[in-house]
Every structure is written in C-alpha cells, then in structure tokens.
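User:
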Amino acid sequence: MFENIERDADERGQVGIGTLIVFIALVLVAAIAAGVLINTAGFLQNQAESTGEESTQQVSNNVEVLSATGAMDSGSAPVDKVTLTVGVGPGSDPVDLEETQIMLLNDSAVTIAGSKESSDSSLTFQTTDGSDPSDNTIASGEELQIVFDLDAGSGAFDGMTLYEGNEAEVTITTADGSQTTEVLNVPDPLDGTDAVRL
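Assistant: Predicted structure:
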C-alpha cells in the first residue's frame, strides 16, 4: 500500500545541516536583538537618573527672600537702595550667589546683571551686620544680603526709580535653574523715615 522510498544517506545529512544553519541564524539574531535592547535600557536608565538629579536640584536648590527693605535720603522719595535678606530653602545645597543671575524689573526698565560682575557698583553682597562676607555662598541656616544701589552713579541698576506706590519685581535664578521671584511694593504715602519695608 505504501511505497517505500529509499533516500540516500548523503541527502539526509544535507537536510540536517540546513536545519542547523537556520537554528544558528535564529540564535544569532536573538542574541543581537537582546544586546541592543540591553544597551538601550542601560542608556535610558542613565538618562532618567541624570534628568531626575537635575530636576531635583532645580527644585530644591533655591534662594528664599526672607525680607526686603528700602532706604531713602532723609525719608524723601525715591527709594535709592533696596536690600534683600536671603537664605536657602529647606534641604537645599549651598548656593553661590556669584553663580546666580539677578533681574530687577520696574515700570520703566528691565535690568539684568549676573552677580559675577564684581565691578558693578550697583550690586553688592553683605552679611546681615553690614560687613563683607568671606564668600558669597549661602548654606542652610545662613543669611546674606543683596544690596541694589539705585543711586550708585554707575552700574546696571543705577538710575532705576522707585517712588511712592511703585512696584518692582526681583527674580533670582541660580546656576541650577531654580527661580525665585519677589514683588517689592513701595508704601504710599511714605512715613518720612529713612527706611521702609517693601
């Protein structure tokens, strides 16, 4: 009923070798694909860690404005010196004010000055007792003052005017990209004293 077909032994060997070649090719393709996937996963993990660290620093390493005062000559307008007392936020690493960018905006002008510009006489840093700081880095629990001299005679902030009822905005951007904004309001009317809270 069934016809026996005899095959040559050489033909059966060739069929086995073909199957083996296909199997090896499949294993090689799978190994290469696995290697690509592992490398891609490692790259994405490193990138995610780096992005997470940068985002954390941007959020946590910030400067907080604790108080803002304005000084005037003999209690008459305009305010010619603005002093911000600043510290760092909870859990923040030390922030170097020399690496920050400070912007002061009022109705008439926008002035941007990088605090690295030590020759700018209209922007200085001092300790809370008015002396020069040993360095311009603020650590947790420490305070420094940023002083804008609007009547310095020269410098980026010289010539800005803050009269009664005027409003100004200070933005401090750290090297990590964290931004702090403080709105300054000059009282109206001024009470005749030499300094006011803004």
